[in-house]
Amino acid sequence: MALTGIEIFKMLPKTNCKECGFPTCLAFAMALASGKAELGACPYVSDEVKEKLAEASAPPIRPVKLGAADAVKTIGGETVQFRHEKTFFNPTLIAGLLTTAMADAEVDAKIDTFMKMQYERVGLNLRPEMFAVKDVSGDAGKFAALVKKVVDQSDALLLLCGDKPEVLKAGAEAGKDRRPILAYATDANADAMGALAKELDLPLVAKADGYDALAALTTKLTGMGLKDLLLDGGARAIKQVLQDNIVFRRAALVPKFRPFGFPVVNCVAEMTDDPMMQTLYASVCIAKYGGIVVLSDLQPHTVFPLLLQRLNVYTDPQKPMIVTQGIYPINNPDENSLIAVTTNFALTYFIVTGEIEGSKVPTWLLIKDTEGLSVMTAWAAGKFSGDDVGIFVKKSGITDKAKTRTLIIPGYAAAISGDLEEELPDWKILIGPREASHIPAFLKSL
Fold first, then answer.
1. Helix crossing, 238-253 with 275-287: angle to 10°?
2. Could you give the 3-state DSSP secondary structure of residue 278?
3. What pLDDT digit, counting tens, does each position of 366-398 carry?
4. Domain ranges, ordered by start, for the chain
5. Based on the number of CB atoms within 10 Å of its own CB, is 93 exposed (0-12), middle (13-18) or buried (19 or more)?
6. What is the model's pTM?
7. What CATH number is given for 5-57 in this structure?
8. Beta partners for 330?
9. What does R_g of the chain's alpha carbons equal in angstroms?
């Protein structure tokens, strides 16, 4: 039975050292009891107390770490059902599918596409992270060779799929540096797969049809000493998959049902052969609690929307998405190009840069830090005033890049033009359009 915060507090050292990230030991104890902190954050708790508090302090959904030591990815570990309650921390991993039936040329092409599929967005590198490598031949040597090819030619994480433990063992040894996931343990092979996962100290996917069967399977595997498990409810119809994902998350968080307290794998590649429908199904799984989604093929036009959706879902809703303050060259500007300024609210940045790019007019875009506020909100909050913008322009370094002394400000910030002219007496201040869609015509007119 879970301990209360007060019961946990009585076992803590009560130093109030703040090294755990909480102001007092009592606050830390309350966070432990609610599953919002980990016991390992306290540097002074004794081993005896750690053992006693292991159950109480464990996250409701176990975090599972994957990958090499210098590039670890974590799935699971979430403590809330809805992101507005707190936030989601460990993004869904997006995987492509490789099988031993594929020709070498096809495998090479898929790996090459995977490595090139990287997108810069608000200072982040967005990309898929994983390959699901599936055995369809029963040939351990062939499977190990395919895994080794993935390891040698990419930095992808690995989900190893097959029903023969000896084949999976060969693949796991070929990719041991990536800490691959083994799939699947079923009621029929649970003993052998559990023993293999325990021997190699690797995560294992438990797969069963129906909640009772899956709970019994995970209970059996944890009883064997396995801790890093993942769940697959066996469904391959999107309605049932969505229901399963919600049931697993809610059961783990609300009644703290331990047999379902693990990340979920959703193999959308087995739900349909239509790539577009796979993308739609994957979007559902990303929005509702999938830890890993597996698509049959990773292509830029299908993966990029999923990466953006994932970025939005796993961004703290209480903190606006921002762009780093600085100078952004668009359409290869030179010393005679136009200069514009706006706020660092990410949506504003992407809309404005998209319209400037579409205009084909070389432009220097200055992004001022307004703590992620849009133009009107930043102006109303005093974070995009004429004085502040003027000081920013002078300190930005734009005068080292451009000879022009004409600055375009957003139409919604027209009120700052007078103060800005006083702060920048040698500059001409132009008021741009209010609607972003009018930016191309405005720039071309200049």
1. 20
2. helix
3. 999 999 899 999 999 999 999 999 999 999 999
4. 5-57, 64-313, 326-445
5. buried
6. 0.77
7. 1.10.15.40
8. 363
9. 26
